[in-house]
Structures are given as C-alpha cells and as structure tokens.
Amino acid sequence: MPKREQELKLMVTKETYEKLLAYADPEKPLLQQTNYYFDTPDFYMGKNGVMLRVREENGTWILCAKIKQKSQSSAISAIELETEISPDMFVKGRGKPEILVNLLPPEGQEAIYRLITPSELVLRGTLHNERRILHIIDDYTFELDRTFFPNGQEEYELEIEGMKDEAACQRVMQMLTKMGYSYSVNQKSKYQRLQEAIVQELK
C-alpha cells in the first residue's frame, strides 16, 4: 500500500546530536542502514522528484520508490512505495536496475516510466546511515540520523514523522527550542545532498 510521508527534517550540529542521544529509546536497536540510489547518469529522476532506492537495514533489504509531493508547510511530503526483496535480487538488480523497477508496486513503476526508460538507470551513489529512534513526544516519531557521505563528510539530522500541517511543525520546533536545542530546517533529502556532493567532486 502506498504510504504518504510527511516529515520535518532538521539539521543539527554534532554537539546537539550527542545531547539528543540521551532520548534514544532503549527498547529500539540502533539501525545500521546502507542506502543504494539508482538514477540516470545526469540525475534526471532525482531532479524531477522521483527517487529509487534499495536500503539494507540490519539484514533486511527494502526496495523503495519515493515520489515527492507539493507541501504547504516546513515538512517534506512524499508518497513512499516499498517492498521487501532478497539479497540475491538486489545483486541482480544492482547490475540491471530495470529488474528492481519491475518489482515495485504499479504506482512506483508508473512514476519512473513517465520520466525515463529503466534501462537508463545506474547505481549513482551509496550512503551509510546510523539511525536511532528517540522518545521525546508520544504523538510523533523522532529519528536521529548520523549520515556518512562518500566524500568523508558527516551530517546530523533529526527527522520527525507525522507532521499534519505547518502548525504541527511550529509546535515541535518551538518545543525543541524551549529545550535548548538549535537546528535549521532542511528541505533537501539525503539523496539530494548526495547528488550535490557527487557533482561537487566532479568539478
């Protein structure tokens, strides 16, 4: 089933990241994620709001197409279509990404076919991410990320899921400010930031 995701993304400093670790849910394990992104050589899909990713998370492989939606708030809105695949299927799809496209739910396939021919796809980049689930407010899911980019850069990010509107975003941000945490609102996905890092390295 398609999932509509509305999440507020906040970039934080390393110091703030380390302070937020105090809220890590002791019952939730650290998630080790490796994200493999597929696109055309010129990032045509990503530039047009469609992402194709395989995520290996603590031994589970998840194929995902994410379709960005227009948002009237600070939150990023997207339709997320996921399906679990086997490690062997990932190995096959890594060299022939059209195999992965054909495993997606119909809506994900249609979004990709509207933009490109799947045979144009290649593996464009890989990110490793450490994710912890925080327990701060019961109404929302807080995910604290430490992301390692191929150029050696590290970024720290707090993602809050379940944002219904701008008022909800403002309430959460005001709460974090009152708690003494500084942050900056981020409208770029990890994949967009990876694209920028790859393009910068090519200059």
UniProtKB/TrEMBL annotation:
Every CYTH domain range: 3-197
Domain of life of the organism encoding this protein: Bacteria
Pfam families the record matches: CYTH
Protein name: CYTH domain-containing protein
Taxonomic placement: Bacteria, Bacillati, Bacillota, Bacilli, Bacillales
SMART domains linked to this entry: CYTH
InterPro entries on file: CYTH-like_dom_sf, CYTH_domain
